[in-house]
Write a structure and sequence with these properties.
Shape: globular
CATH superfamily: Immunoglobulins
Radius of gyration: 22 Å
Number of strands: 8
CATH architecture: Sandwich
Number of helices: 1
CATH topology: Immunoglobulin-like
Largest sheet: 5 strands, antiparallel
Strand content: 35-45%
Order of helices and strands: HEEEEEEEE
Helix content: 10-25%
Number of domains: 1
CATH class: Mainly Beta
Structural class: alpha+beta
Length: 116
Amino acid sequence: MLARFSALLAIATVAVALSAGPAAAASYGTTVVVSLKTPAFHGKLKSSRSSCVGDRTVKLFRKKAGPDRLLGTDRSNSKGKWSVPIGKLQSGASYYAKATAKGSCRAAKSRVLSIG
């Protein structure tokens, strides 16, 4: 009887530990919207958690063979808006933006924009 009680107690302890774990490690998704309106790429961060849109670092990249080229960075404002000025666009090139992780807010990447 004591062995059975000990086994049930061990199972209950594991169940409580597992249920507490995910709540402590909660993270929130972010969507990065990017568009081109010369003279800058601009966009907005969106999230179900308002603290995940403001004061985030956004990096703009050009896809290329090997490591992608970092073109510039910006910090999103309190509404999630950001912009990165651009120089000359390359015909046939593809561009995308990334928001870095911040606290419980996960990193995110935009869709790729291809310039015809």
